[in-house]
Structure formats: C-alpha cells, structure tokens
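Q: Could you fold this chain for me?
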Amino acid sequence: MEPLPKEGEPAPAAAGAGEPSRGTASSSGVVVQVREKKGPLRAAIPYMPFPVAVICLFLNTFVPGLGTFVSAFTVLCGARTDLPDRHMCCVFWLNIAAALIQILTAIVMVGWIMSIFWGMDMVILASKYSESGNSIRELS
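A: Sure. Below is the predicted structure, expressed as structure tokens.
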C-alpha cells in the first residue's frame, strides 16, 4: 500500500497504466442472475390457473385470509408449489397457517395488507404459470 501524495506533489503514475481499471467497463459481457430466496410460507403459495388466482385475490381483498384458505385446497387438487420436496399435506397446512396469520392479524391492519399482497403474489405466479403453457396435470 502506497502512501497518499502530499499537497502540491504530483501523484505518481500507476503501474500498469495501460491496463483497464476495475471500475471501468470491459468489452466482455457478464450475465448476472438474481434468484429470490423464499421462506417456507411464501414458497407454499400454489401455482393456480389465472381465474382462480384472481378470485383468491378478490377474496383476500375483502375478507383477509379467505383467498389464502381457498388456495390451500388447490394444493390438495394437485397445484404445484416451490416446495417440491415437501409432502402435499405439509404444504396444505403451511397455507392454512398463512391464512390464520392473515385472519388473526387483520385486526391491526397487518393481516389485511399481508392478505392483499399474498393475493397479488398468487396472480403473479398464475400469470407466469400460464405464460409457460403448463397445466396442473402435466406437473403433478
């Protein structure tokens, strides 16, 4: 590590001045992939058909937790989740737990807001699911 130049002195030329510095962009491209790490409750949200997801969002908006409760039963009907290593009944109970959390905390508005975001996540997952052209029967 070199000492900083004093006031009035010229800065010494850096070694390897012909090399690009680390802060500059190079001509080679770098692909960066960002992957969201989901907790068990978030990963238990099922991939449902789009109309069912919209109905669950509607239910969650007006009765917190009801749409999440309904979505738990789509897991029993074969809907895929991001928890492939867990048994269907475990994922079902995770969704029931999420619905109960939403219902019990709706009194202080936290559950109602969580319920709306949960419904929006259902619709987002359903739209990605329908874009890929998969059906529930193909994945189970």
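A (continued): The helical segments are 40-43, 50-62, 66-76, 88-104, 110-131, 136-139.
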